[in-house]
Amino acid sequence: MRLKVSDLSFAYYDKNIIEDICLNVSRGDFVGIIGPNGSGKSTVLKNLYRALNPDSGAAELDGEDLYQMSYKKSAAKLGVVGQENFVPFDFKVEEIVAMGRSPHKKLFDGDSARDKEIVMQSLAQIGMQDMAKRNYLHLSGGEKQRVLLARVLAQQTDFLILDEPTNHLDIYYQLQIFDLVKSLGVTVLSAIHDLNIAALYCNRLYVLKEGRISRTGTPEEILTPEIIYEVYGIRADVRLHPVTGKISITFLPGSLNLAQQ
Amino acid sequence: MNHVKRWYESIGKILNKTDPNMPAILILFSIVALFSIVFAIGLGPVSVTPSNVIKILLSRIPFLTDYIAMTWEQLDENIVWGLRFPRVLLGMMVGASLAMTGTAMQALVRNHLADPFILGVSSGAAATATLGMLFGVFAFLGTYALSISAFLGAAMTIILVYSISRVKGRINITQLLLSGVAISMIMDGITKMITLSAPNALGLHNAAFWMSGSLAGAKWAYLTLPFVTTIICMVILMLNYRALNALLLGDETAGTLGINVRRIQKMLVLVSSLLAGTTIAVSGAIGFVGLMVPHITRLLVGGDHKRVFPVCALLGGILVVWVDVAARMVIAPAELPLGVLTAVFGGPFFIWLLKKNTKV
Q1: Count of A–B CB contacts within 8 Å?
Q2: What is the ipTM of this complex?
Q3: Which of A128, B234, B245, B311 lies 20 to 30 Å (CA to CA) from residue A12?
Q4: What H or E segment, with its residue span, contains residue A162?
């Protein structure tokens, strides 16, 4: 068990409360957290990557209390792509990516040749090696998102927490990034907006509804028309796709006036 | 012409923002700084030629004294060694320290509009400094009473402005600037109240000094503390350059990169207050240096703090030394306060930055 979360609760001012979150992630798992807007997906993740401190409950990373660890230690184990992507000053793409090396650096360490190599390699993995010298501020939203992913790759952790990492991306980059993350073979916990993407990549899902985990299971168990209706309030047609062998969901909008199945 | 063009090109190659040649830049600015020191010492109501300035300075090096013929008058030596040299050195230090304070505060609030003067830190330091000076409130602190009282005022103001402008864990820029204005007005008011009710006649004169900023009072004895503080703070800031860079990505992201955000923020408050306090204790409030210099530095070498700190320290020093030359030349033999001059062209720079900022 890599991450074991028990009875985590957090009150965020007066909204976005999460309650009694229990969650387990094993080595090599690709775990998705799904749920409607405002259900607390980001809040759960923020509590796990220590941007927020829970009011009660516990989390263990590799058997150690996550909240007692030094930030440096947790950062060496846990890479995060959150939703902050605004940088107020001029930085080059390669400088942003190089920041991923921070947790591995001691106070007097300079950037070694190895660090530079890792930075260029990470940029190559997301297909942006030609943009290393570009100004981060001048990139498009999608490019920024990919640079932040490269930063996490340069961090070289074997556990990633992703908060809707493909938020600003078109379908090509959505698949590229999830393919890349999957190919790393690392443990992943990700909030995912798109249920079809969740079905394609995750081996386990947690459903968050009004700040509580309402269900957990494999995509096949979770992504049924009944549960989708219960969580999102929409009708859906769910099939095992003949080509991918994965669950494929077609949403049935009310305006089509389809007969009740 | 060809010669000039080639020269221009090689400068362009050194000051290349995408791939700045740091050793060359540092050497270049160090040379400019040295030249500035020599020329600035010579310039003033009484001029001394640069060659005489160099000879006078070299003659002070114990080992060289015997080899240098005295081609100058004793008066020149008194001016160079007793008045101008400490003044120019103080200018270098004040400039470096203000530029670094600006950079550190900008990293703390994640915005390039922060500056010790704009955010009221200078006013806060001046208020406690006047309080200490006129009423001896901090007299028990001994020789460094003035600097320590200025530091306390600076620290108090930074913490106040920072906590007022932090809304839901983020610095709100409108809140930041407005609370800076409010705090500096309050502090200036307090300074005036203290000086007007002061038991001695020095009060008014000294208050004017704190509010307008000047290097005119420079003495050798004033140099030690700011020098030591500036060096120590610079080392601390340089060692933490990764953390400062990460902080610009946001508190949450910095945490995921292994940075103890709370600790770094406390360090920045402490270091900025130390720098601002010791500087203001010797020079009064000199505005906008901490705003302009970091901005120009980032235009030259990019945002990486590892490069920003040494370059902004040199540039800040050079700028203040030359503005001080202007301050004593413009209406010679009388003197303009240095802070008046920096405000006159720093203000428009701030407005330009503000306009530019709202466009993004």
Answers
A1: 87
A2: 0.89
A3: B245
A4: strand A159-163
